[in-house]
Amino acid sequence: MENKTLQEVYKNSSEEVRKLLQTKFTAEELGIKVDQQEFDTFFKGLLEGCKSSFFFNKNGKKTAIPTNHFTLCDCDGRWLFDVRTGENGHFWYSCYRILPLFKEKFGVKGLELSELMQPVLNSVLNLYDVTAVCCKYET
User: Fold this and answer.
1) Which of 7, 27, 84, 87 is the most exposed place for a label (fewest CB within 10 A)?
2) pLDDT bracket for residue 139 (50, 70, 90)
3) What share of the chain has pLDDT > 90, as a percent?
4) pTM of the full predicted structure?
Protein backbone atom coordinates (compact mmCIF):
# COMPACT_ATOMS: atom_id res chain seq x y z
CA MET A 1 0.00 0.00 0.00
CA GLU A 2 1.36 3.40 -0.96
CA ASN A 3 1.73 6.18 1.61
CA LYS A 4 -0.08 9.39 0.75
CA THR A 5 0.12 12.79 2.32
CA LEU A 6 -2.95 14.31 3.92
CA GLN A 7 -3.08 16.84 1.07
CA GLU A 8 -3.11 14.04 -1.53
CA VAL A 9 -5.88 12.19 0.29
CA TYR A 10 -7.93 15.38 0.49
CA LYS A 11 -7.34 16.29 -3.14
CA ASN A 12 -8.41 12.85 -4.40
CA SER A 13 -11.41 12.34 -2.09
CA SER A 14 -15.13 12.65 -2.66
CA GLU A 15 -16.96 15.77 -1.49
CA GLU A 16 -18.36 13.82 1.46
CA VAL A 17 -14.90 12.76 2.64
CA ARG A 18 -13.55 16.28 2.11
CA LYS A 19 -16.21 17.72 4.39
CA LEU A 20 -15.32 15.17 7.06
CA LEU A 21 -11.62 16.00 6.76
CA GLN A 22 -12.41 19.72 7.05
CA THR A 23 -13.96 19.09 10.46
CA LYS A 24 -10.77 17.44 11.70
CA PHE A 25 -7.99 19.46 10.05
CA THR A 26 -7.29 23.10 9.23
CA ALA A 27 -7.26 24.40 5.66
CA GLU A 28 -3.50 24.77 5.94
CA GLU A 29 -3.05 21.12 6.98
CA LEU A 30 -5.22 20.02 4.05
CA GLY A 31 -3.31 22.22 1.60
CA ILE A 32 -6.31 24.44 0.90
CA LYS A 33 -5.32 27.92 -0.18
CA VAL A 34 -7.89 30.49 0.84
CA ASP A 35 -8.17 33.47 -1.49
CA GLN A 36 -8.16 36.54 0.78
CA GLN A 37 -10.17 38.64 -1.66
CA GLU A 38 -12.88 35.97 -1.98
CA PHE A 39 -12.90 35.58 1.81
CA ASP A 40 -13.20 39.36 2.34
CA THR A 41 -16.10 39.61 -0.11
CA PHE A 42 -17.94 36.78 1.65
CA PHE A 43 -17.27 38.22 5.12
CA LYS A 44 -18.35 41.75 4.12
CA GLY A 45 -21.52 40.24 2.64
CA LEU A 46 -22.30 38.60 5.98
CA LEU A 47 -21.78 41.88 7.83
CA GLU A 48 -23.90 43.82 5.33
CA GLY A 49 -26.60 41.14 5.39
CA CYS A 50 -27.30 41.60 9.09
CA LYS A 51 -30.92 42.70 9.49
CA SER A 52 -30.90 44.33 12.90
CA SER A 53 -28.59 45.64 15.55
CA PHE A 54 -28.75 46.56 19.19
CA PHE A 55 -26.66 49.08 21.09
CA PHE A 56 -25.52 48.61 24.68
CA ASN A 57 -24.69 51.22 27.31
CA LYS A 58 -21.62 51.00 29.56
CA ASN A 59 -23.58 48.75 31.97
CA GLY A 60 -24.40 46.24 29.23
CA LYS A 61 -28.08 47.19 29.00
CA LYS A 62 -29.79 47.68 25.62
CA THR A 63 -30.24 51.31 24.64
CA ALA A 64 -31.70 53.22 21.70
CA ILE A 65 -28.76 55.63 21.81
CA PRO A 66 -25.92 54.60 19.46
CA THR A 67 -22.78 53.57 21.38
CA ASN A 68 -19.46 51.91 20.62
CA HIS A 69 -20.87 48.50 21.67
CA PHE A 70 -23.40 46.77 19.43
CA THR A 71 -24.54 43.42 18.12
CA LEU A 72 -25.45 42.50 14.57
CA CYS A 73 -28.31 40.02 14.19
CA ASP A 74 -29.92 37.89 11.50
CA CYS A 75 -33.48 38.39 10.25
CA ASP A 76 -34.81 36.36 13.21
CA GLY A 77 -33.06 38.59 15.75
CA ARG A 78 -30.40 35.98 16.67
CA TRP A 79 -26.99 37.51 17.23
CA LEU A 80 -24.20 36.87 14.76
CA PHE A 81 -21.57 39.41 15.81
CA ASP A 82 -20.84 41.44 18.94
CA VAL A 83 -18.63 44.48 18.35
CA ARG A 84 -17.05 46.99 20.71
CA THR A 85 -14.81 49.72 19.33
CA GLY A 86 -12.35 51.88 21.24
CA GLU A 87 -10.91 50.97 24.63
CA ASN A 88 -11.44 47.30 25.55
CA GLY A 89 -12.64 46.64 22.00
CA HIS A 90 -13.65 43.20 20.83
CA PHE A 91 -15.14 41.34 17.88
CA TRP A 92 -17.01 38.17 18.78
CA TYR A 93 -18.74 35.92 16.28
CA SER A 94 -21.23 33.13 16.89
CA CYS A 95 -19.71 29.65 17.09
CA TYR A 96 -23.13 28.26 16.21
CA ARG A 97 -24.07 30.44 13.22
CA ILE A 98 -20.94 32.02 11.76
CA LEU A 99 -18.21 29.42 12.32
CA PRO A 100 -20.02 26.67 10.34
CA LEU A 101 -20.42 29.00 7.34
CA PHE A 102 -16.68 29.63 7.14
CA LYS A 103 -15.81 25.98 7.82
CA GLU A 104 -18.04 24.84 5.00
CA LYS A 105 -17.08 27.48 2.43
CA PHE A 106 -13.35 27.84 3.15
CA GLY A 107 -12.42 24.93 5.42
CA VAL A 108 -11.08 27.30 8.08
CA LYS A 109 -11.62 27.55 11.82
CA GLY A 110 -10.10 28.98 14.98
CA LEU A 111 -6.98 31.09 14.74
CA GLU A 112 -6.81 30.72 10.98
CA LEU A 113 -10.30 32.20 10.67
CA SER A 114 -9.42 35.07 13.02
CA GLU A 115 -6.37 35.90 10.90
CA LEU A 116 -8.41 35.91 7.69
CA MET A 117 -11.02 38.20 9.28
CA GLN A 118 -8.43 40.80 10.29
CA PRO A 119 -8.25 42.82 7.04
CA VAL A 120 -12.03 43.39 7.11
CA LEU A 121 -11.97 44.21 10.82
CA ASN A 122 -9.31 46.81 10.04
CA SER A 123 -10.81 48.35 6.90
CA VAL A 124 -14.55 48.19 7.63
CA LEU A 125 -14.81 48.42 11.42
CA ASN A 126 -11.49 50.16 12.24
CA LEU A 127 -10.67 47.42 14.76
CA TYR A 128 -6.90 47.33 14.49
CA ASP A 129 -6.03 46.00 17.94
CA VAL A 130 -8.76 43.37 18.16
CA THR A 131 -8.69 39.66 17.35
CA ALA A 132 -11.89 37.97 16.23
CA VAL A 133 -13.02 35.41 18.80
CA CYS A 134 -15.57 32.62 18.49
CA CYS A 135 -18.17 32.97 21.23
CA LYS A 136 -20.58 30.25 22.37
CA TYR A 137 -23.15 32.72 23.72
CA GLU A 138 -26.63 31.80 22.50
CA THR A 139 -29.71 33.98 22.19
Assistant:
1) 87
2) low
3) 34
4) 0.77
- Please tell me the predicted confidence (pLDDT) of residue 1: 55
Q: What separation in angstroms does the CA of 80 have from each of 18, 63, 94, 117?
A: 26, 19, 5, 14
Q: How far apart are CA 121 and CA 139, in angstroms?
A: 23
Is the pLDDT score of 2 beyond 70? yes
DSSP assignment of 13-28: S-HHHHHHHHHHS-HH
Q: Where does the pLDDT of residue 62 fall: very low under 50, low under 70, confident under 90, or very high at 90 and above?
A: very high
* Three-state secondary-structure class, residue 131: coil
Q: What are phi and psi of 54, to 5 degrees?
A: -130, 140
What is the DSSP secondary structure assignment for residue 1, as one 8-state letter? Answer: -
Q: Which of 87, 96, 108, 85 is nearest to 135 (CA)?
A: 96
Q: Which residues contact 114 (CB under 8 A, 6 or more apart)?
A: 131, 132, 133
